[in-house]
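Hi V.,

You were right to ask for the full record rather than a summary. Here it is.
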Amino acid sequence: MMIKVSLHGAEFFAYHGFYPEEQLLGNRFILDIEVEFNPTADMAADEISDTVNYEQLYTIAEQEMGKTRKLLEAVAQSIADRINTDHPYLEKILVELKKLNPPLKGRVAYSSVTVIIDK
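Predicted structure:
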């Protein structure tokens, strides 16, 4: 049996971007995280210690989103790496980071980067 735990649509305001103006003005970001693992305990025991606490996933994301970086790839990778370090038993980690209204010539809803760790 495999279990997937997910966060979808976590919103952050942060200062990521290649251009100095982006790091000065900031932007809105949407983050999705999915992790998968083979449980070693019976989920019927109803213990949070037997699963991945999505509050911990959010805390990791919040901390990493607070560190200004030029590339979305670097932000997403740092979130995935921290999750992997804190939860080494995970079989798969997917982090998708969306930058809303990226500064382009035309209207674009969002740009996105996805990092996948698949063991």
